[in-house]
Each structure stands twice: as structure tokens, then as C-alpha cells.
Amino acid sequence: DSIRKEIEKLGYPVIVKPVHLGSSIGVEIVKTEGDLIRSVETAFRYDNHILVEEVISPLMEINCSVMGSSLQSKTSVCERPLGKEELLSFRDKYMSDESGKGMASADRIIPADISEELSSSIQELSKKIFRILLCSGLARLDFLVNAKTEEFYFNEINTIPGSFSFYLWKETGLSFSGLLTGLIDLAIEEHRNKKRRIQSYETNLLSQKAVTGLKGTKYMKK
């Protein structure tokens, strides 16, 4: 009952989804209290934890890719995925055609048909989140946008995005080989940085213990 009351504060409709899944699996829009229990039970089939969120309406999904490190990064253009349903579904993302290209083949508008101000704000926040999470390499960040007010919310980060999000970087003039070269260079630099760090700490602690005895042995009965 307490959970139901908290959900009522949000007001219907709400979105119910598993916490640790992706690709819209187990995600449902609940429009009435009568559908809530069924949707919650469905979500719990996929995860031990679920989220219940307020529905953003009219909803527009905007994605942006980031490449770099926690010290320096750059962003791709933004995209607006298109879905045939109220919520972008698994079918929209991966079964829109028979090419087997996953998200790369889904219907989308690139660059996204949004204002330059909104696009810049999403790109800057994407880099900030990438840095805060200490990411390295490449990721795609997904945002939920109120199409009427342009108020936007960070939804999730995909650290292994399908097709390396090349369809987003292509619009910046970057070739696929250029994308791979950039990722390889980042990996090499990260490896070099790790090698510079101290990996061990030399000490004669064990030999000292052999002489003085382990901590607590003074309490042993003689």
C-alpha cells in the first residue's frame, strides 16, 4: 500500500522497468492502477529491482555518443530515434528490418531535429556524465526530452553501444577506420597510464611477523 501511494503521487501514466536491463526489455507504460500489479510482476521476472517513473509527455528520445577519457572527450551529433509505438520498443530498436544491424538500422533522424541550444546542452551534459563516471573509450548516452518544453533528463549510458555508434560519428565526417583508430589510441594510452602506476609495495612485513608474532598472540595462554 505504501508503494502504491508513492506511485499515486507521480500520477498515471507511469513507466515500470527493470533496473539492470536494457533494450526496452520488460519496460511498460502503465496508465491505470489496475495494470500496475501486472506490469510490476512482469518487470520482476527480469530483475530483482525495478523503477517506476513519471511519464514524460510528449516524449522525444535523444541520443548522443561520447569518445575519449575522463580527462578529455568529444561528442558526436545528436540523434532522434523513431518508434512506431508510444515508447521505443525492442522491435523498433532491433527488428525494424532484416539486415541484422540492430540499432544502426533503426529509423532515426540524424542530426536530431531539435534546437541548436538543446543539442549543445545535451552534448555538454553527455561529456560531463562521461567524465564523472570515469569512462574511457566510447559510450552512447540516452536522454528523455519533453518535446513541448525541451526539458530533458539523462536516462542511461550504454558503455558498449551497438555498432560503436558509428552512425552518429559518420555525420561528423569521421570514417569507420578513423573511429577504430581513435579507440585503439585511447586503449594504448590507458594501458601506458596503468603501467606508470605502482603495482606493488615492497615490505618486509611478513619477515617481521615471523619475529614478533602475529597481532593478538600476546593474548594466547602460555
Descriptive notes:
The protein has helices at 2-10, 33-44, 90-94, 116-132, 166-169, 176-196, 205-212, and strands spanning 14-18, 28-30, 50-54, 59-68, 73-81, 108-109, 137-146, 152-158. It is of the alpha+beta class and 222 residues long. The strands form two sheets. It has a five-stranded antiparallel β-sheet with strand order 6-5-4-7-8. The mean pLDDT is 84.
What are the main properties of this structure?
222 residues, Dna Ligase, domain 1, 2 domains, five-stranded antiparallel β-sheet, three-stranded antiparallel β-sheet
In short:
Helices cover 34% and strands 23% of the residues. By secondary structure, the chain is an alpha+beta fold.
Distance between the termini: 61 Å
- Backbone shape: flat
Q: Are there runs of 5+ residues with pLDDT below 50, and where?
A: none
> What portion of residues belong to β-strands?
15-25%
* CATH topology type of the largest domain: D-amino Acid Aminotransferase, Chain A, domain 1
**CATH homologous superfamily designation of the largest domain:** ATP-grasp fold, B domain
Largest sheet: 5 strands, antiparallel
Topology:
Blueprint: H1 2-10, E1 14-18, E2 28-30, H2 33-44, E3 50-54, E4 59-68, E5 73-81, H3 90-94, E6 108-109, H4 116-132, E7 137-146, E8 152-158, H5 166-169, H6 176-196, H7 205-212
